[in-house]
Specification:
Arc Repressor Mutant, subunit A; 249 residues; 8-stranded mixed β-sheet; single chain; Endonuclease, Chain A
Length: 249
């Protein structure tokens, strides 16, 4: 990471670009006047004063009341704490508001037949975990690679199993079966390997009416998912029937 990257990162944490540049410059200088900071930070001296005042209010620098004024940054540990508190406060305020208005303009019929897509392995994992957490009756999870069977999915399956949901992990890969068995989950292997190997990365079927079907193109995982729709019910029923015929149980 270079200086520009650090400034950009601080800006994403809530500082203005000038504030970030002044803060970085003062960390390099130790102490300095507005002229000193302007020269190092590539910020007009007239803008240093306002940025320094805002940094002072944020608890990120101290001001020595001399002529000219001198500025000194707080320690890095203190700066981390202040920025963390600032970020967490802003995050909590934003999400508290969003939670208070969530769905207040939604059409109650919207999404009943929707098919959605989600891109990125982490995002697919999050969606799978969410539908497993909502499971009431049964969950079937299948994958051919442990890379698509992370701890968060295993934990969600274990929690579902603990609350009485019928959980089954399906794979033709011995490592996946072992990972599931190690945490006490019911497992099944395929009676015959699938030839040719399908492009799907993982599949999750929940309660007969919810499905997440992932595909990996070698670089990016994308998943299609649907819940409480005719599409989800028909596809889930078809896949459950196929698995019932093909599993080595």
């Amino acid at each position: 990471m270079n200086k520009s990257d650090a400034v950009d990162a601080l800006a994403r944490l809530g500082l203005s670009t000038y504030e970030a540049r002044v803060f970085v410059a003062l960390q390099r200088l130790g102490t300095g006047t507005a002229s000193d900071v302007a020269e190092v930070a590539d910020v007009p001296r007239s803008q240093v004063y306002g940025a320094a005042e805002d940094l002072e209010h944020a608890g990120l620098l101290e001001v020595q009341q001399t002529t000219p004024r001198r500025y000194r940054p707080v320690s890095l540990d203190a700066a981390r704490d202040h920025l963390r508190e600032r970020f967490e406060t802003d995050r909590d305020r934003a999400f508290d508001y969003i939670e208070s208005v969530q769905g207040d303009l939604a059409d109650s019929e919207d999404g009943h037949e929707a098919i959605w897509t989600v891109t990125g392995t982490d995002a697919v994992t999050d969606r799978i975990v969410e539908i497993i957490e909502d499971a009431d009756d049964r969950v079937l999870f299948g994958t051919g690679l442990t890379a698509f069977f992370p701890d968060s999915v295993r934990n969600a399956l274990v929690e579902a199993d603990d609350r009485g949901v019928a959980v089954q992990v399906v794979s033709e890969d011995a490592d996946v079966i072992a990972a599931a068995s190690d945490v006490g989950l019911e497992t099944s292997g395929l009676a015959t390997p699938m030839e040719p190997a399908p492009p799907s990365s993982r599949v999750t079927l929940v309660d007969g009416d919810t499905i997440v079907l992932g595909v990996h193109d070698g670089a990016t995982e994308t998943a299609m998912w649907s819940a409480n729709s005719r599409f989800a019910s028909v596809l889930t029923e078809s896949l459950e029937s196929w698995f019932a015929n093909e599993l080595d149980v």
